[in-house]
Amino acid sequence: MRIARFSIDGNVGYGAVEGESAPGKEGELVLDIIKGIPYADFELSGTKVPLSKVRLLPPVLPNKIVAFGRNYDEHSAELGNETPDVPFAFLKPSTSLVGSGDAITYPAFSEELHHEAELAVVIGRMCREVPRERVKDVIFGYTCANDVTARDVQRREKQWARAKGFDSSCPLGPWVETDLDLAAANDLTIQCTVNGQQRQLGRTSEMVHSIEDLIVNISEAMTLLPGDVILTGTPAGVGPLNVGDEVAVTIEGIGTLTNKVIKRG
Fold it and tell me: Which burial class, exposed, middle or buried, applies to 20 when counting CB atoms under 10 A from its CB (0-12, 13-18, 19+)?
């Protein structure tokens, strides 16, 4: 099931996305509005709204976004870094979230903004110290993410809070796919295009540390809550974004997250 969060006429809700999409035919998708919240037992209301009539929001409201850096060897190498032996985590604030179709605002303190296409894992239940064999039980689903990075600030400041935590630096969406199993999620095609030109192309099977590794690692340190988001790293091919660019992250079996870069007003 594809679970989206949306707004229409000032109201916010969740819905199950029905139908198949194709380029130029997104209006064929509809939302069946959910009664309740998606992390608990819920019912479909039967009230359906065309997806083209709503604004898609970030599909979850996480307590925290845990991101893992340098989790693909070729990406580490392209930036002149070594791949860490153990998962390398950092946090992005919830205020960095935007949904599919929302703008990425170019921060005034940077002159080198980069895209980073990533598979995002959404947690479905409160958990800590998750054993490897139980990882599949704590996952709600998967979505697309773009870990937008002020690369010059990252180099200059040595720590990543501003470089990766500024407002609009975490596009997420368009929805959460709940029907992917863990084995499938560990081997998906992930790509990024800018203005229709391919920049990144890889597979999640190329991750140095698997989804299981990442969740076991971070849950040793902190409790994960329903809706929390785990960003699993980006494949090689990261590169610049400029004002006016349209960047799209597409992940096999999930969908496409699209955002346009604008100048801060």
Answer: exposed
